[in-house]
Amino acid sequence: MSEQLDRTVVRAGPALRRGVAGAVATIGLILVAITYIDRPVARFMAVHVHDRLPFIAMAAMANLPSPLATIALVGIVVAHWCGIPLNRTGRMVLAIALATLVAIMIKNQLKFDFGRVWPQSYPFPGIHDHPSYLNDHVFGFFPFHGGSSYASFPSGHTTAITAPMAMLWLLAPRYRPLWGGAIVLVIIGLIAADFHFVSDTIAGFALGVTVAAGAVSLTAGWIDQGRRR
User: Fold this and answer.
1) pLDDT, tens digit, for every residue of 184-208?
2) 179 near 216, Cβ under 8 Å?
């Protein structure tokens, strides 16, 4: 038992070092963006982007994963009740759906924890009268403030699109341009429409990738068992 534990620790060492290095690099990139990038980019988009509808449509793609994941879970449960076994595709869909919903749940908690104001005020329910950087020159974090007016960090849309696309990137590498392209389009839409600061999207991307990587490491063997079905 002791030898087996030692081998496990040795194998986990490089992965742990990569994870720590990735976390440190991500935090550093976020801090740089908050200090030097967020405000200039927000001001640039406010001045130079006149037709925001295309960018709003790009960002809206991230509204799809959550309801699709819920529908997939319901369908899989019904299939299980009917005695239909899951093949590899079904298992992959289940893993992606669960990872997507877990990532969304975590980002909701982080939004409350950080309490960041949005780049700009928009006439959306609950956030139409909130303080923002472009409208009120308010820039910062108000931890545990609560409310949708203080929920810019991390970007929920980026998290919602990144978690499933990152899993597909790992599980279905043949179509990586499609998975990566979806993430890029959403992030461009969010920044260009001043829905989010650049650092918000970096944090949302990092969260989605982290959840996806963890989900794949936990379920890859189980997913591949479905090949025999």
Assistant:
1) 999 999 999 999 999 999 999 999 9
2) no
Number of other CB atoms surrounding residue 38 within 10 Å: 21
Q: Does domain 38-228 correspond to CATH entry 1.20.144?
A: yes
- The amino acid sitting at 52 is R
Q: Is the pLDDT of residue 2 over 60?
A: no
Render pLDDT for 79-120 as a digit per residue (tens, 0 to 9). 989 988 888 899 999 999 999 999 999 999 999 999 999 998
**Alpha helices (H) in the chain, listed in sequence order:** 2-32, 38-48, 53-60, 65-81, 88-114, 133-136, 156-171, 176-192, 198-225
CA distance 162 to 184: 9
For the beta carbon of residue 61, count every other beta carbon within 10 angstroms. 16
Q: What does the block give as tokens for 60? A: 């809206």
DSSP 141: B
| CA dihedral of 109, 152, 210, 98, whole degrees rounded to 10 | 60
Q: Cis before residue 14, ω within 30 degrees of 0?
A: no
